[in-house]
Amino acid sequence: MLLTYIDWHTSPEIFEIFGFPIRWYGLMFAMAFLAGYQVLSYMFKKEGRSLEEADELLLYAMIATVVGARMGHYFFYEYPLLLSDPVKFFISMIKPPYAGLASHGAVIGMLIAFYLYSKKRNVPYLYVTDRVVPTAALGGAFIRFGNLMNSEIVGKQTDVPWAFNFFNDPSLGHDYLEVVPRHPSQLYECLSCLVLFVILMWFWSKKKQNTTNGFMTAIFLLYVFILRFFYEFLKENQVSFENDMAFNMGQWLSVPVVLFATGVLVYAFRNPKKEL
């Protein structure tokens, strides 16, 4: 057998500056926006749009991602706290450190933000989302790599030869006896996002002149959240209340996104592309 289990001892901290820790996840989060901006600027430049528009769209995306992901985590995964202590719930949601983010919440936040942007700039909503989804796929790859460096969102126990032993997983503790080979589910999603980024950029570069608005958005959402539904079978539940559910929260939340994306795809096929 060429591959053996990988012992993952990586610390989530890279180094400290004056006692302030610089963490891999924070770096990957920043890289997601920086790399995404470069891609978005390239696309806008090729289409004859101004960099000012790209700058503003990035700002909308940044705010929507952080706020949406944070609120999504609390309303989707911490709602028992809302029922038991609403004051503590809202204080915890806005109080640092921001150790809980949900991708479904980020999607909702961005869909709302891009609607506001499209109205302000007077451009078709689905045109905007089509230009953002390649950057979102690339950003997703960075974020999931950050999860890997944090040893979080780990997979279930497995005997596949590429399994990881997560020695620093905060949800499992640091007892050596608790460390078992697990699916590197973060890496699966990271690589899937990279593949999607390549597909979307190729499609945009070759087909953008003849593509209806919304088609790329629908493909992005279907690809990400159908895969997310099945990847969840390989992952440990993030919160305890999911243990009694037939499908976990990530799977249930993926269903309406897939239905929405299907509707967008139907709309795209029924409505011809409008030149800007």
Automatic annotation (TrEMBL):
The record's listing under Pfam families reads:
LGT (PF01790)
Q: Which GO terms describe its biological process?
A: lipoprotein biosynthetic process
* UniProt keywords, alphabetically: Cell membrane, Lipoprotein, Membrane, Transferase, Transmembrane, Transmembrane helix
Q: How does it sit in the membrane?
A: Multi-pass membrane protein
EC number of this enzyme: 2.5.1.145
| Membrane spanning stretches | 24-45, 57-77, 97-117, 186-204, 211-231, 251-269
Q: In which pathway does it act?
A: Protein modification; lipoprotein biosynthesis (diacylglyceryl transfer)
One of the record's GO cellular component terms: plasma membrane
Keyword Transferase: yes or no?
yes
GO-annotated molecular function: phosphatidylglycerol-prolipoprotein diacylglyceryl transferase activity
Q: Which residues bind a 1,2-diacyl-sn-glycero-3-phospho-(1'-sn-glycerol)?
A: 144
Q: Carries keyword Lipoprotein?
A: yes
Compartment list: Cell membrane
InterPro entries cross-referenced by the UniProt entry:
Lgt
The residue stretches assigned to a coiled coil in this entry are none
Family note: Belongs to the Lgt family.
* Stated role: Catalyzes the transfer of the diacylglyceryl group from phosphatidylglycerol to the sulfhydryl group of the N-terminal cysteine of a prolipoprotein, the first step in the formation of mature lipoproteins.
Put simply, this protein is called Phosphatidylglycerol--prolipoprotein diacylglyceryl transferase
